[in-house]
Amino acid sequence: MSKTEYTVEDFMLDPEFRNWVLSPDEEAKAYWEAFLVEHPEKYKEVELARRTLLNLSRSVTEVSEHRIELTWTAINKGVEEAGDDNAERRVVPLSAETTLKRFADRPFIRSYRPNLQFYRVAAILAIAFSLGVLFSLTHQEAELAPIEIPLVYEEHEAPPGVKSNLTLQDGSKVILNSGSTLRYVKNFEAERRELFLTGEAYFEVAKDSLRPFTVRTGPVSTTALGTSFNISAYENESHDVSLLSGRVNVVLGFEQPYQIDLHPGEALNVEVGEGSHKKQRFREEKVLAWTKKTILFEQTPMEEAIRVLENWYGVKIEVLNRPGKGVLLSGKFVDQTLRGVLEGLSYSARFDFQVDKDRVTLRFDTSS
Amino acid sequence: MSQIPKSNGKISAELLWESLKSGDKDALEQLYRRFIKELFRLGISITGDADFVQDCIQELFIDLWKYRANMKSTDNVKLYLFRSLSNKINKERRKALRWSERQQHVSERYPRFLESVETKLVNSQREALLQKKLAKAMNDLPTRQNEVIQYLFFENLSYEDTAKLMGINLRSVYTLAWKALSALKKAVLWFAFPLVHYLS
User: Which of residues 56-85 of B touch A (CB under 8 A)?
Assistant: First the structure.
C-alpha cells in the first residue's frame, strides 16, 4: 500500500512514522517533510496520527517491594515442593529388572500421585492465599502512597571494580568510571539537561542547542552544547575538567562566582577545598586512559594511586610503614591484573604486597 | 580473579536460562528479580488487577521450575516470559469469568499513574488531559486489542515478536492493532474537535 492511501491508523502502525514522531532524526524529518509537501491533503491524517501517538498512555501500577518479596516467597515454597517431585521422576532404570519393577509399582503410584499432587497444589494455593490476605490487611497503605510523576531521578552507579557505559535519552554517551555515581532527572527537563556527578566520567554530548548540557560536581558546573569532555571529581581530590572537542563553559560557584571557557586540549584543575583553580594543557592519552582499560601513573601521589587501584579492582588497600615523605608512582598498565600492577610498582617504590581476596596489604621497606 | 570486570557485571538472561534448565535454583531467583517489575507492569496494565496478576506470576515461575528440563532454549527470555504470562492470564481469565466478577472492581484500590509511549521528547509536547483520556480508552479496549497495543507501542516489540507472543499471524496482529488504534483515534477526535468539525 502506498503512503498516499494511508489512513490515520496506518500511519500510526508504520514504524518509520513512529520513529519520526517519537525519536526524530534528520533523515526522518527530511523524509516526512517532503512527503507533506507533495501530499498536503494528507496533513490532517498525519497530524491526528502524530497527536494520538504522542499522547498514547497506559495507566500502570508500581508494585511495592513487599508484593515482590511475598510473591517470591510463595514461588520458593512452590519450587521446594516441586523440587522433590522432579527428582523422583528423573530416576532412570538401568536394567531390565528395574524396568519391570517400575511397571510393577505403577498401579500403586498412579492411584497415589494425583492425590499427593492435589494436596500440594492445595497447600500452595492456601499459602499464597493467606499471604495475600495477610498482605492486603497489613500493607495496603504502603501501596496507596501516591507516586509523583514529575522529577523522577535516574541514578547510575558504577561500584568499585565496575565501569559502565550509558546512553542517555537524548543520545549522549557516558562512560562512568569505577566508584562513581551519576544522577539526573529522568528524561531530562524541558529546557535543560542537568546531571550530578561524583567520581569520574567521560561525556560525549549529543547536540541540542535548545537544551544546554550541564554537569554539576559540587560547586563546579560544566556546561556544554555538543562536545566531548572528561570530568574527574572524586571526593577529597581536585576536580578536573578536560575538554577534548567543542567548547565548554565552567562556572565555579565559590563565594566569588567565576566563569571560564575551555578550548580543546585545555583542562581546568579546581582545588575545591582551597577555592583555587588553574588552567593547563593535558594529554588525551593520560586523561582517557581509563576508558581504554589502561592505568597510567605519572609521578602520581601514592594516595591517589591507591584510590585508583581500590576503585579499579574493587579492593581495600592497607599501607604499612607508610613512608614519611610523599611517594610518587609511575607506570603504565594495559588490561593488567591487580597482581601485575602491584608487581610493576613494587620495584621502584620498594614495597612488598599481599593479596588476600579483596584485601591488599602494602608493606614498605624501611631499611633504605 | 579476573581483574578487568566486564563493562556491566550482569550475566545475560539467556545464560541464566541455561543454568535454570540445568537445575540451578539461583538462576530462577535471578530471572525473577530481573523481570518481575516488567511482568507486573505488563500484567496489571492488561488486566488492571494486581492480585490476579500476582497469582499468575506465581504459577508461571513454579511452572518454569517444574518443567525446566523440557524447556526449549531461547534467545529472548523476556519475550518467552511475556508470552507465558499472556497465556496464563488469558487462560485463568476465561476460568475466572465463569464464577466471579471480581475483575475490574479491584483495580480501583491501587494507585495508578500514566506512562506515555513517548519518552525521548520533552514533556511539554504532551497534553495531560488527552493522555488521561487515552489511558482510559486503552482500559476500555477488549483485552486482546489492549494487549497488542501494549506490545507494539509500550514494549516496543516488532510485529514478528508480537505475533509470536500472541500466537497469531502477522496479518491478525495488524488487523487487531488497526481496530484498537481506530478506537483510540476516536477518543482523540471527541476530545479535540467539535463533532461537527470532524464530520465535515
Answer: 57-58, 61-62, 65-66, 69
